[in-house]
Write a structure and sequence with these properties.
Structural class of chain B: alpha+beta
Number of domains of chain B: 2
Number of domains of chain A: 5
Number of helices of chain A: 25
Shape of chain B: globular
Distance between the termini of chain B: 76 Å
CATH class of the largest domain in chain B: Alpha Beta
CATH topology of the largest domain in chain B: BirA Bifunctional Protein, domain 2
Number of strands of chain A: 20
Order of helices and strands of chain B: HEHEEHEEEEEHEEHHHHH
Shape of chain A: flat
Strand content of chain B: 15-25%
CATH architecture of the largest domain in chain B: 2-Layer Sandwich
Largest sheet of chain A: 5 strands, antiparallel
Oligomer: heterodimer
CATH superfamily of the largest domain in chain B: Bira Bifunctional Protein, Domain 2
Distance between the termini of chain A: 35 Å
Radius of gyration of chain B: 21 Å
Number of helices of chain B: 9
Largest sheet of chain B: 8 strands, mixed
Number of strands of chain B: 10
Largest interface: A-B, 56 and 46 residues
Strand content of chain A: 5-15%
Strand order of the largest sheet of chain A: 2-3-1-9-10
Helix content of chain A: 40-55%
Radius of gyration of chain A: 34 Å
């Protein structure tokens, strides 16, 4: 079976784009082979990449497409023959299809009788297919940002394409893309190998030939060798280990073709700068790995770093490169120290006024305005704890409130510092460090540092309840205010990252061990809506709440691996709230997540399925009745309960109602589900012996009211009717 | 800390030799050598030799060293790494040759950098100037962890999509000189060495006063009200030149090539540059509030885009009726 190799030679691809492009190229080639019937049982697709190339190698593809017969439908029989004689339409169709008129056949399809021709298509060779179709696949690769380079702007690509290597076994496929014609030649490492062409005679030689030219084409191998080299370099310092950083390993893997690792030092006195700043400078700005003391706890940084190079040098060369890197790092640390010293001249407290000159959003005012808003919303959130966070008159409560307020007041002040202007990714962190240096309470410093958290699905939530409250206030008020100005996200457009903010709110509510049983999403939303246009505008309120419930559903699915149908059933539970039906006492969002997980575990069980079916039937009857405008009684009238099964259901629903709510609040989710499953028998009996839609309007209305209550009682915990025909989770 | 290691075995280039070498290198690759533009600019890109010449289809290659003024970056000569005015060696190749990266790497060898003894990486760094309506795709070139060059494939300039595009290579000369000479402060760079006596003249001797005095002016003395007045005057004059040019260039009947080529768009561009520099001064004085900022940038952009559009039209032969 033949093998195939394609290499696209490029100028340096951005490190963050290489991995996805490598996968996409391999997928495109694979799909092309499937589509073009060039696969075999032994087909194997492998892909490679470096900053300067994307490559794919296929073993065991078919050399030739099989011949194929195809039936082409022509004109209708009536048009094709007049009195049994072929018309010009039939003759033209036969000619176009390349068959004799006498060879035309007739078929019967949905539209009537038609003339058809059976056409034999000779299979094409793999070489022909690949040469013809690959350029379009290369052109189709997605790039987050691409460019033109040739005059006339015939194509866009991530960076200019400089060579193409395309081989089918030992045959060069003369395909063309971006004005480059494929050849049997690749290029090695720019410096270590130089300009000499690297001739690749057959696909199987690829990795070996490139390795001889100082290019390790497999990123997997590079990643592994970088890790080993980091370990080896670290061993030069007794008791040291390099700080694990998967993301950084990934970046340097895609910045190098022939990676080596170098150990460097910096002056010990820089260790007096906070670790966060040292690591940001090393990691984000210089792509260096930090070293830490293995035996100390908490782990302390060592005055060393590891740089990953894209070259192999002798000792003299290593000394030169080490010296250069150390020079740069020293200058960077000196800068950071300078910013630190300058910034200390104006304490954070005096920077609040300066926030008036920093725009938050042109329609929403400055960061000073945002600060005032966050303080107020934080206060409102504290008021809405249920049960209350502390005894309202206690000293503890007052201290807590004033800590939260101070953190909210100072949270944004670091935006005015030189340090954050230089290292923008350290916003919040710098505020926390400065607060500590300026001897503000630890709790305040932590809350300031954490209030942007969580910034991603992977990031942790704030470490303290005070931090969580400031984070909630900051995020929810941005969401409410942006919605009020009409800036809600649409489709893929979310310029103010409101979805991320919403995800953060939900995660804090579900995961903060302190808040999760005391705070409801609805309370948090209400806190931010006070004195805004949302108070008068129910449409706006619903839009905001529905957006937040979307985030909650997303959270259940993505972070808790809850089945999409279960997530939806939970979203529509009465516990999740919604301004349509405020139901007195709310449960904390942590409880809701706990219940969702229990339900997810039981969802395929016969008990749950059976009761879900019945509840769906009840809901359907109810819906159809509503659609027909049939009157319900507001509540069932016990006097009108005729059948024993009606009486039994009515009695049980009342019992189940109490049991669901009690167990739910106590975190006994199994019992909640068991109580709901217990409705199976009485519901079955009810449907067996009672006809709901009888003619007597009183009786009918009463039965509808009973069903309606049953559905509603269960829906307090989850909309079980959505679980009736659940698809098995993948 | 290890003892300092000389980066090069032979004597490293002085600041002015570095400039010679790069000029020589690019002149021998077909670049016109230009002198620095004599109106204040924040970057080599703003010189008309780049900003206007990249417009239109005509091939063009130029190299020049451009003192680039960024008032807010001044540090009274006290910071060893930051300058109010630094020198950018600007090379523009339109269209970019296929081997532009290889040429660039050769230029590093020409200034004494043995690539086999260093770590060079091209790391993604795209460039954008909202003030100029310009952007490009490219890299920062890292040499042993130091950013020494911005390498950009210019895609748009003055709001006009470029065809062909241009390759722009911008070397930070002070950084490279400090690296080559292995000095920790820019002010210790040897600018020149007297051939007979070997006496060295440092960057500090040549430029320290400049940095100190302009920092004083930019941060303390510049008269905000007058700066605004200057800004307005330059802006108005630029606008009126543009209005006239637009009228002429938009007139299909006016196919008089000579009268078109007389339109003083190059002067209009100088006026636009003046506005840009005044904006930077006002910014350094802290005289532009955040809310104003966006508006002022938009005003300069209007001028820059206006000049670019008119200039492009001027370069095009009118379609004779």
């Amino acid at each position: 079976m033949p093998a195939f190799l394609l290499e696209i030679g490029l100028e340096e691809i951005p490190a963050g784009m290489v991995a996805a492009a490598q996968i996409e190229l391999a997928e495109r080639v694979h799909k092309l082979l499937v589509r073009e019937r060039l696969t075999t049982d032994t087909l194997q697709v492998m892909s490679f990449s470096t900053p300067r190339r994307l490559a794919v190698r296929v073993d065991g593809l078919s050399p030739q497409q099989a011949d194929m017969e195809e039936e082409i439908v022509g004109p209708s029989l009536k048009v094709a023959y007049k009195d049994g004689v072929p018309t010009p339409a039939a003759i033209a169709f036969a000619k176009k299809s390349g068959v004799e008129v006498s060879a035309l056949q007739t078929i019967q399809n949905a539209k009537g009788e038609y003339v058809t021709a059976t056409v034999r298509r000779a299979g094409r060779s793999a070489a022909e297919v690949l040469t013809g179709l690959l350029p379009a696949e290369i052109a189709g690769i997605y790039w987050p940002k691409s460019m033109y380079w040739r005059a006339g702007k015939p194509e866009r690509f991530v960076r200019p394409v400089r060579w193409l290597l395309a081989l089918l076994d030992e045959e060069i496929l003369p395909l063309e893309f971006a004005g480059v014609r494929a050849d049997g030649v690749s290029h090695g490492h720019r410096v270590l190998h130089g300009d000499k062409p690297v001739v690749v005679r057959a696909p199987r030689e690829y990795e070996e030939k490139l390795a001889a030219a100082y290019v390790q084409v497999d990123p997997e191998v590079r990643r592994h060798s970088i890790r080993k080299a980091l370990d080896a370099a670290t061993r030069q310092i007794p008791g040291a280990r390099w700080r694990e950083d998967e993301e950084l390993v990934e970046i340097v893997t895609h910045l190098t073709e022939w990676p080596t690792v170098l150990l460097g030092d910096f002056e010990k006195e820089h260790l007096t700068l906070p670790e966060e700043i040292l690591v940001t400078v090393m990691r984000d700005h210089q792509k260096y790995f930090a070293l830490e003391d293995e035996n100390r706890s908490p782990r302390r940084l060592l005055p060393n770093f590891l740089a990953v190079l894209n070259i192999e040098v002798d000792e003299a060369g290593a000394a030169v490169i080490r010296h250069g890197n150390e020079r740069v790092l020293r200058a960077r640390f000196n800068d950071a120290r300078f910013f630190w010293d300058v910034d200390q001249k104006i304490p954070l407290v005096d920077r609040v006024e300066m926030l008036k000159n920093v725009t938050f959003h042109k329609d929403l005012g400055s960061y000073w305005d945002k600060t005032q808003r966050n303080r107020e919303v934080a206060r409102q959130i504290i008021d809405r704890f249920d049960p209350p966070i502390f005894d309202a008159d206690s000293v503890k409560f007052k201290t807590f409130c004033s800590g939260v307020d101070q953190a909210a007041l100072l949270a944004k002040t670091d935006l005015t510092t030189e340090m954050v202007k230089e290292f923008t990714e350290l916003q919040g962190v710098v505020g926390g460090l400065y607060a500590k240096a300026q001897r503000l309470p630890d709790g305040v410093a932590r809350a300031i540092a954490d209030h942007y958290k969580p910034t991603s699905q992977e990031d942790s939530i704030p470490r303290t309840p005070a931090g969580s409250i400031v984070a909630l206030a900051d995020k929810i008020s941005t969401i409410v205010d942006m919605f009020a100005k009409g800036f809600q996200p649409t489709g893929s457009k979310d310029p103010f990252a409101l979805r991320r903010a919403g995800n953060g709110v939900v995660r804090i509510l579900a995961e903060d061990t302190y808040l999760r049983d005391k705070l409801h999403l609805e309370s948090v939303c209400w806190a931010a809506m006070q004195e805004t246009s949302a108070m008068q505008d129910s449409q706006l309120r619903n839009a905001i709440y529905s957006f937040m419930l979307d985030r909650f559903e997303f959270y259940l699915q993505e972070s808790r691996s809850i089945h999409p149908q279960v997530a939806s059933a939970i979203r529509h539970a009465r516990t999740t709230g919604g301004f349509q039906e405020v139901n007195g006492q709310l449960v904390g969002y942590g409880r809701i997540v706990g219940f969702a997980e229990e339900l997810n575990g039981q969802v395929g069980s016969p008990e749950v399925l059976a009761v879900a079916e019945l509840l769906k039937r009840a809901a359907n009857i109810q819906r159809q009745a509503k659609e027909k405008g049939i009157q319900f009684l507001n509540a069932e009238n016990t006097a009108l309960l005729q059948d024993p099964s009606e009486e039994e259901l009515a009695r049980l629903v009342t019992e189940v109602d109490a049991s669901i709510q009690k167990n739910y609040r106590e975190g006994k989710y199994k019992e909640v589900i068991a109580a709901i499953a217990g409705l199976q028998q009485p519901l079955n009996a009810f449907f067996d012996s009672v006809m709901v839609m009888v003619d007597d309007p009183q009786l009918r209305g009463n039965r509808l009211a009973l069903l309606s209550r049953t559905v509603s009682v269960v829906r307090w915990a989850a909309d079980f009717s959505e679980l009736a025909s659940i698809q098995e989770t993948a | 800390m290890a003892a300092p290691i000389s980066v090069l075995t032979k004597t490293p280039l002085t600041f002015q030799e570095l400039l010679f070498q790069l000029q020589q290198f690019w002149a021998s690759r077909g670049c016109i050598l230009q002198q620095a533009y004599d109106v204040e600019v924040g970057a080599g890109t703003m010189s008309p030799e780049t900003f206007l010449r990249v417009l239109g289809p005509k091939p063009f290659r130029v190299a020049y060293a451009q003192p680039s003024r960024r008032p807010a970056d001044g540090r009274y000569g006290k910071n060893p790494n930051r300058l109010f005015k630094h020198t950018q060696m600007q090379v523009v190749l339109k269209p970019p040759p296929d081997d532009i990266q290889a040429l660039y790497l050769k230029s590093l060898e020409a200034i004494g950098i043995d690539l086999r003894q260093h770590d060079v990486k091209f790391e993604e760094d795209n460039w954008e100037s909202p003030t100029l309506g310009a952007w490009g795709i490219g890299w920062q070139v890292m040499l042993d962890g130091l950013e020494i060059t911005q390498f950009t494939y210019f895609q748009q300039c003055g709001g006009i999509d470029l065809d062909p595009i241009a390759g722009e290579i911008t070397y930070g000369l002070e950084r490279i000189a400090a690296f080559l000479q292995d000095v920790d402060s820019i002010y210790d760079i040897v600018w020149a060495r007297e051939p007979d006596t070997g006496r060295e003249v440092t960057y500090g001797e040549v430029r320290l006063a400049d940095e100190l005095q302009f920092s004083v002016y930019n941060f303390e003395k510049a008269d905000v009200e007058k700066l605004w007045q200057h800004f307005k005057l330059y802006e108005e004059e630029c606008q009126s030149l543009l209005a006239e040019a637009r009228g002429r260039l938009g007139d299909a009947e006016d196919s008089d090539t000579e009268s078109r080529s007389r339109l003083p768009l190059l002067a209009a561009f100088d006026l636009c540059l003046k506005c840009s520099h005044l904006f930077n001064l006002l910014d350094a004085r802290g005289a532009i509030s955040v809310t104003e900022r966006v508006g002022v940038i938009a005003r300069i952009r209007t001028l820059a885009v206006g000049v670019a559009k008119a200039y492009a039209a001027q370069q095009t032969q009118p379609v004779s009726a």
